[in-house]
Amino acid sequence: MSILNRLFEIPSSDPDDVRRRKLLNVLLIGVSVLTIIGLLAAEILYTTGQAISAEEKTLILISGPLLLLSLLIIFTINRFVAGNLASIVFLLLLLGIFLFTDTPSELANGRSLFVFFIPITIASLLIRPGASFIFAALGSIEIALLADYLGILPNVPAITGFFLLAIISWLSSRSLEQALRDLRTVNAELDQRVEDRTRELTESLAREVAETSKTQAILESITDGVIVFDTSGKAMVANLAIDRLLGIKPNDLIEKTIEEIAFQIVLNDQDRQALSQLLDSPYEGSSPVRFKRGGKTLSVIAAPVQSEAGGVFGTVAVFRDYTREAEVEQMKNTFIAMVSHELRTPLSAVLAYAEMLRDKVYGPVNAKQANVAQRIYANSQRLLILVSDLLDQAQIEAGTLKIHLTEFNPGELIDAMQGTMEKPAKDKGLELSSHIDPGVPGILYGDPQRLQQVLVNLVNNAVKFTEKGKVTVSLYLHDAEQWALEVMDTGPGISTEAQEYIFESFRQVNTGDTRNHGGIGLGLSIVKRLVNLMFGEISLTSTLNQGTTFTAKFPLHPPTREHVHDTTDRIDSGR
């Protein structure tokens, strides 16, 4: 096959020339095969004694090899010299052969006229479209010469047919060549486009590989563990640091869900549920989930992975060794709790003695002494409140603050608040009113001591920041499952920006009133934590220069076990 391919290979860069020469090769091979078949048929017919004479056999045996030799010469010319020359010789050879295929009368005016159609038709394909006219003329000359030889008039209709066929062949060949040229142009453009796109893709791939290598190098250099999950929740990328933190090889995490990973690192149900919830619904600014593994405390934060177009195609989870920070935080909470507890006893004594001095228990005092005693009492009381807040905050952070859920009377809760806050409100000239909706049951469920702390804290805030008007406390049924405490004031209101952080620890609204009234920003934080610990939720609505309303909602019925677990998770994780 290799030899045949080289034999029939056309040494030309012109695609039209290659096409024509290949077509000529096909015709040469076809005529050669027909010639060989004709020689074999003549031999068979002669041997079987059928209608062929010895002279005809001799003529065939001589002319056949000569024709094959002529075809070989034409093939050689076509292969090594020029295609057009070989085609012309081939077509002239056909015209010459056709003169001996039948009697002169049949060729000039009979059944064999059709043989002259052959060179006319294929001339436009082998040489040029206009070559059909040349061979139409040559065929016409042959017919005219034969007619003159026979002494008859030339066959004008046949000659006219030759030129009509030449026109048709010219048009067909010309259309074919035009179509081929257009196709080559389109192919050239497509090749160029493919080349350009291939080059662009190669450059893009090179950039992508470089960027991927850079990203991988950065990822591996991060000391925090990183796992990237796809939209189906399966891990697709993990760095080496994850092995140090979780004790699992990065390759062992690929295609694993967070539940499977949590099972591998042996997390309890509570931590596994919190971790799954964080990764199922990541959002910017979400609080981390912390859990213990062995002797380490790990902190996990998650965020959605967004494409440049803004679509989300996964979630990234960052695992951080929080052990040292957790230890320091625990030491801080323990220290604050200890100091706060130790401060409360002497402060209570100072407060009591100051009150007795002010009230002249130990004898009469002059106006200046009474004023000093009042100042000692007021500042000691303020300091005791701060210490109590710090102690509550430390206990909440350490998880040691206990909630005692029991039945209580809502009327007693409101009366106790009135007894505590009525005088401070009256001293500022404010109206403090309270209302219990008639539909509220006579017995509710909660921790009455902590509910009193929540209510007094909210009312105290309202009184402290309201300069004129009133403070209204309402207790009502929010719906069939919840009851609510509402504290509404006519104070300066809280800005939208401040409402976003008002419940955070050690955060205060940055206004002149806040600075004048003091405080360390723990009151509302403690209120929110206490409300959450009692399975409730708190919210606020506020309009600047019109007032603020805090609403705390609590369940009417004792919580279920699942509710207890869910609330504990939210408190522990800070969510």
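Above is the first protein from milestone M3; the second protein from the same milestone is given next.
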Amino acid sequence: MSGVAVEPDVVVAALRAASVGRGDLVGLAVMPGVGVGLAAPELAAPVALAVEDPAAVVAMVEDELRPRWVIWSGATAARLVEAGVRLATAWDVAAVHRLLFGGWKAEPDRVWAALHDLDPGAVPTLPPLDLFSQPAHDDAAALVRPVRPDGYLEPRWVLGAAEDDPQRLARWAALALEAAALQERRLTALPAPDRARRAVRSESTAELLCAELSADGLPVDRDEAEAVIAGFVGPRPRTALEAAEQRAERDAAVLRLAPPGQQGVDLRSLPQVKSLLRRAGVEVPDTRKWRLEAMRDSHPLVAALLDWRKAERISTTFGYAWLDERLGVDGRLRGEWTGSDGAAGRMTASAGLHNMPAALRRAVVAEPGHVFVRADLGQIEPRVLAAVSGDRALAEATQEDDLYAPVAAQLGVDRATAKVAVLGAMYGQTTGHGAQALRGLQAAYPVAMAHLDEADRTAQGGWDVRTYGGRLVRMGFGPAGELTASQARARAAARGRYGRNAVIQGAAAELFKVWAVTVRARAAPLDARIVLCLHDELLVHVPTAHGDAVSSLLDDCLQESAARWAPDRSVRFLAETSVIGRWSDAKG
């Protein structure tokens, strides 16, 4: 059917004739005002359709057949969301590449090269055009063939050459489908292919959620946000001079507490701040927040410096300019979301949505007639450790609401020490408070500790590790250069600590995304939408009348997700859920 303009209903009929049904893969490429390209394994040729509104065609196929859409990246989902179409499921080629090969970069040319075992360093690029250069003589041929004779993707296609012609959109969709088939072969070669396939489905659907989060935004009350900002940095400055004066006043409030002769210290210079504290009688190896917090009462300068840092962060990152740039006239704060940070696979967002100061949470207010349902996974990482390691003793401890209480009883220590020991085991902290209890963990929970130790040894040896769901976590720490023996040991130890934490943090991220996409699907009929995914926390915006129903639904979805992610029901997962009007009302 390539080269033939067909009607939308004919597209559905053609796909149905090609045995496309619910969950079957269909390659997709769209460009508003140009058309849509579709490809399926049993189609004789990809379908090219020239239409002004390709999203309407996609919506029709979605309603009639509900396939699993194969897309190169979340950019396709974003275009559809902008047009009012939200896909149920997908196979996101970029997301699957990040799981299979690790890292962040997942452009089509890089994905294609990896799947064909081509040198990623030799991926072709286009030289920049200037007044003295002419387009290559084979430009016309390049627009016809997306794959070069050397096997690499033609860079013009990667840069969007497919987007101005329906025929090329169809070919681009077919290439996405081909890439998905090659990725499926790679998944089959993994140690737990079925588990990896489940991860691929949830990771891809998480990218659909990310497109929706980016478009929907987070409800924020502008007046409340401005009041919070003003409380830290003063009223909105009318001029650059006023802004400079406010900054100087904040600095002066700290430096008035400094020893004589130190009033000229630059508080934004960490070495100068460390020297300032030393002259005030406060010796610290560094000026990290957690270290200074522990010494807040040692000298008035320390407390003033900590308060200054909060105000400085608001002023430079979350101030009036941030609000003006990111908060729309509709009262929604927007940033760009992605389903993987390129490391262990945690969801992340721009515009400060993942590290917004706690003080600003009071400005996150549900819209009239709505509430938030907020749910936070409890003690998720040690519960995940119990699940992925198969440690029956630790799984027994997860039956309690507070996992650390039975662990403390088992080790014969107080709860605080037990918590430090468990977290230390996952983060590679083997000295200091809890170190003796950490040794006790080896005897009490040998299977879980062996799981962490194996990841540690693998990473120390310079080998990459994979999470429970199959995500590759790279252990490259940059070029080694000339290292002394002690430096080499320190670097290996750092890799080990990173590896043992990555396998747990990555697995926790996988479970969280299964939970999030399940909530996305189950809560949609109640007109509820997720507006924030923060590490282990979901914030759902829902009509007030459905608040309690969605609150119960979130826990049901967690149990469903845990069973799907790790069918071993011996590990208990739980979430603290509340129905609130503003984010700051949440406990914890």
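Note on the second protein: The chain is about 50% helix and 10% strand.
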